[in-house]
Design brief:
The chain is built from 10 helices and 18 strands. With about 425 residues, the chain is of the alpha+beta class. It has a 7-stranded mixed β-sheet with strand order 10-18-17-15-11-12-13. It has a 6-stranded mixed β-sheet with strand order 1-6-7-8-3-16. Strands 2-5-4 form a 3-stranded antiparallel β-sheet, with no helix packed on it.
Length: about 425
């Protein structure tokens, strides 16, 4: 029996470029921090869905025109990777521009979101599959994809090289594009605030950082090789369902000290451990915002990386104890990473996401701050590319039509683990 050939619902891709309206970077060399280099094999993808009334009458020219001014404010996004004489990468601010992708989709937005919730997510088709290299000097750091659906709606897909900045920076910059499109142009340039060296005590975790994993050298093709085929699944937890879960797990006196992110991370950590018959993981990585204001700033990798270690059976422990462990026993590792990449490992290649099971806290990200013609997106999702075999879980705010109190959970794991985790979450929590 011959299996049916799968046909992508997204077709007709057309590529073009947008550069700043005037010379911005003066062809300067923009030095990358050690945290930037730690993220160089990872890519961020954000997809924003807008209904017909938000984009009706808009042309691609209308969407691209504000980008010329937008890129004046964020000149690093228009640059290209170069290497110094020592081999250390930096960004040449040469106004090379960002790449624009136009595409069409045979589904409606409602059909697309329903399909993604019931099966493995297809959102990666709506944000260009970006990899830096092998010609690093010609590889754009940013792609923006406009996909038109048969209902008249549109998605904006952002593909962002993580070496530029973290997901908070990426979402803040795409929000700035929307502001400029609406005529709200910043009165002054974005501030270039390079993260200070971490003040967390190096002695807090002896040895090398647990959140970083060395991989085989990739040369100038910046994407790590996976040992297993990875799958992506996203699901929605309503505010009502989330409230019920929290009240079931926590005593009322505990709810002020434990966040929804910590509760959901604990549930997924334990559920995954059960599917692995308690063979792990005992150490997880937490990636969280450092509470710095990101508006009016150039992109940076300013998120705090911490590790949490459980010295008890994760599959048999109490969810509330795991959540408290995540809340109270995080060991920051930014300082360790900075120290490690200052030494002999400067030219080595590493991964962060999926080195351990990695939980990314995007609860506070302003994902619904992007507006088109005064309308906010009806749904937003983010994923990470270049994830290692241990997997990554992103916890995002839900659509604002629900008050933003629910959550979107996006899981990136080896395909067989995705299915096992979905079954466990459905069985024990009636989610996924």
């Amino acid at each position: 029996m011959v299996s049916a050939v799968w046909e992508s619902p997204v077709w007709g891709q057309r590529l073009s470029s947008v550069v700043p309206a005037k010379v911005t970077g003066d062809n300067k060399d923009f030095e990358l921090t050690n945290m930037d280099l730690a993220m160089k094999l990872h890519y961020i993808k954000g997809v924003y869905f807008f209904q017909n009334e938000a984009v009706q009458g808009l042309s691609v020219h209308d969407l691209k025109e504000p980008m010329f001014l937008w890129l004046e404010f964020c000149f690093t996004a228009s640059g290209r990777i170069r290497r110094s004489e020592t081999g250390r990468p930096f960004i040449k601010c040469n106004d090379g521009g960002v790449r624009i992708v136009e595409a069409n989709c045979d589904k409606t937005i409602d059909e697309w979101v329903a399909t993604s919730n019931n099966n493995q997510s297809l959102d990666h088709l709506l944000a260009y599959n970006q990899v830096l290299g092998p010609d690093l000097g010609f590889s754009p750091l940013v792609f923006v994809q406009f996909t038109w659906f048969k209902c008249g709606g549109m998605s904006v897909g952002l593909s962002w090289a993580h070496i530029l900045g973290d997901a908070f920076s990426a979402s803040a910059l795409i929000n700035l594009w929307g502001q400029i499109m609406a005529g709200r142009v910043p009165s002054k340039p974005l501030q270039l605030l390079r993260p200070k060296k971490s003040e967390s005590p190096i002695t807090s975790i002896p040895g090398k950082p647990f959140s970083l994993k060395k991989v085989d050298p990739v040369g100038d093709s910046w994407l790590p090789a996976n040992n297993r085929k990875m799958g992506t699944h996203s699901f929605h937890i309503s505010a009502k369902k989330l409230h019920h879960m929290v009240s079931t797990i926590c005593h009322p006196s505990q709810t002020d000290n434990i966040t929804h992110f910590e509760i959901l991370s604990a549930i997924i950590w334990q559920s995954l451990s059960k599917t692995r018959e308690d063979s792990g993981p005992r150490i997880v990585t937490i990636c969280a915002n450092n509470s710095l204001i990101r508006e009016n700033e150039m992109p940076s990798n300013g998120m705090t990386l911490s590790t949490v270690k459980a010295d008890f059976s994760v599959s048999k422990g109490e969810i509330v104890e795991l959540a408290k462990l995540i809340a109270e026993k995080r060991m920051p590792e930014n300082g360790l990473i900075e120290e490690m990449l200052q030494g002999n490992e400067e030219r080595s290649d590493f991964i962060v996401y999926g080195a351990n099971l990695t939980f990314v806290d995007m609860e506070e990200a302003d994902l619904y701050g992007l507006e088109v013609k005064g309308k906010k997106p009806v749904f937003v999702n983010y994923i990470i590319n270049g994830v290692g075999d241990e997997g990554t879980v992103l916890i995002l705010p839900s659509p604002e039509k629900e008050g933003g109190d629910g959550k979107i959970v996006t899981i990136i794991l080896p395909e067989d683990r995705v299915e096992k985790l979905k079954n466990m979450l459905e069985k024990e929590w009636n989610i996924a």
